[in-house]
User: What shape does this take?
Amino acid sequence: MIQLNNVTKTVRSGSDDLTILDDVSLSIPDGQFVSITGASGSGKSTLLGLIAGLDEPSSGTIIVDGDEVTAQTDDKLAQIRSEKIGFVFQSFHLIPSLTAYENILIPMEILGLRDARGRATQLLADVDLTNRGHHYPPELSGGEQQRVAIARAFANSPKYLLADEPTGNLDSKNGQHIFELMTELHRQSKVTLILVTHDHAIAARAQRQVILKDGRVISDTLNNEIGDQISG
Assistant: This one.
């Protein structure tokens, strides 16, 4: 479970304090698919970064799978991210000097996982890139790079997958493909999926929709029909 308790994030902007998140409390049970929408500057990406321990809140607590990420050392946060959290960015964040296969392999080799090479090969197949594994990121299309990024995010079998506008840099066809791929992997692995998106049609297909405005949660609704379909 992910729990945010009265989380506020304030940064200095010139001579003033700018509140990005304002007293946000959320409880996300394991296995749920949650979409987060809101206008630019509403705090969506900041929220994901705080959950992943990439940033610290100004106040409040965040608990991920029993670990209070707001009270951990940098080494412990790195361990939590590597073992429990997968992150997919809008801009892919692949290592350009490594092949697609190697980008997927590296996280598993760092953790010393058994049969890392076999799993990397399988993940390439899962994202329909078996024949592109030897290519470097600049040789891949945007949609292919994002598929590699998703495979890499699943490499360590994370319990939580955080996706920050993963279709934002893609055309509608590739964006739809990426969304379908992520939701299929979510169903197969029962990972908790938190998806930040500006696409309201995509957001509406989540089990739960959270809407932010000016750093506050203004709507938090369950789509019971989708939840019943997935749980069934």
The helical segments are 44-51, 74-84, 100-111, 116-126, 142-153, 172-189, 200-203, 224-231. The longest strand covers residues 16-28. The first helix runs from residue 44 to 51. Residues 226-232 have pLDDT under 50 and may be disordered.
